[in-house]
Amino acid sequence: MATELAEDLAAFAFEVTAVAARAGYLGGKPLPSPAEHRGITVRRVAATSFVQRTLLHRAVDYGSFYALAALEIARLPRQDTIIALTTPQSSYDADGSSLQTFGALRATLTSSSVCPCVGQQPIGSKEGEATAFRELVPRVCDELGGQFRIVTGDAGLCARENATLVTKLGLWYLFGLKGNQPHLHGLARECQHYSIGKPLARTAEKYRGNTIVRELFSRTVAGDPEADIEDAQQLWYVCQATYSPKGECTAVEQRYFLTSIPAGA
């Protein structure tokens, strides 16, 4: 979840710095520091890594990381927002099977500049985000009433059951599309069906001396039997290009989305 949040913020031209440990949770070769991952500056501290030998070793690992991470953060320029996330511990039975894990699907109000969390649904060890989505969204709708019109979700939440739920609630959905929905993802990648010459929207932002240009193209699929998901109206294609100060294109990313928002709405 932390990685996806950081990547999305970096994609929208926010300056993002992640502070982590050089060693992995299960040990292994130390990772380099500083490093960069998809526009995110990664600073890793040399905390201890006893690989969960005993509770005492685990406490030393946590203590050394928190102390060194605090020092690293103090050296950084003043940050607008600091988010702290960790991977909680699991409990295991005698056979090594997980007894419990801790996770949650969170709903945020993205129409607000501060994106407040307005609800969350715990996710058990044998559950997934798609199931939690179907419990969380109706509850948020009951509590917030008509405060929002569109429900967005990443590709992991793109499922027929979720599209049907959102539609029955009288809302529009906007889901990312990736390989977990191979038919719809393949349909969205058929770029010859988009009006490439005229983007629906275009933005340009400066990021670390580069210019990031995003263009949105749409394709209507209302009534198309190939788009076999509840109330599908459009496929969206977003092309993100990064240009150097010299005007050279240095990177191109392509993303695809499925939405029930009617064309022209």
Overview of this structure, please?
Among the domains are: 2-86, no CATH class; 180-265, no CATH class. It is α+β, with helices and mostly antiparallel strands and 265 residues long. A hairpin with a 5-residue loop joins strand 4 (91-92) and strand 5. The protein has five helices and 13 strands. Helix 3 runs parallel beside helix 4 (160-168). The protein has a six-stranded mixed β-sheet. Strands 1-3-2 form a three-stranded mixed β-sheet. 24% of the residues lie in helices and 30% in strands. The model has no long low-confidence stretch (mean pLDDT 83). It has helices spanning 2-11, 55-75, 129-144, 160-168, 182-188; strands at 17-21, 35-37, 40-45, 91-92, 98-100, 104-108, 117-122, 150-153, 172-177, 201-207, 210-220, 234-243, 249-259.
Task: Quote the average pLDDT.
Answer: 83
Q: Which class of secondary structure composition applies to the elements?
A: alpha+beta
- Percent in strands: 25-35%
Q: Roughly how many Å is the radius of gyration?
A: 21 Å
Largest sheet: 6 strands, mixed
Question: How much helix is in the residues?
Answer: 10-25%
- End-to-end span in angstroms? 31 Å
Q: Which ranges are low-confidence, i.e. pLDDT below 50, for 5 or more consecutive residues?
A: none
Q: What is the subunit arrangement here?
A: single chain
Topology pattern, helix = H, strand = E: HEEEHEEEEHEHEHEEEE
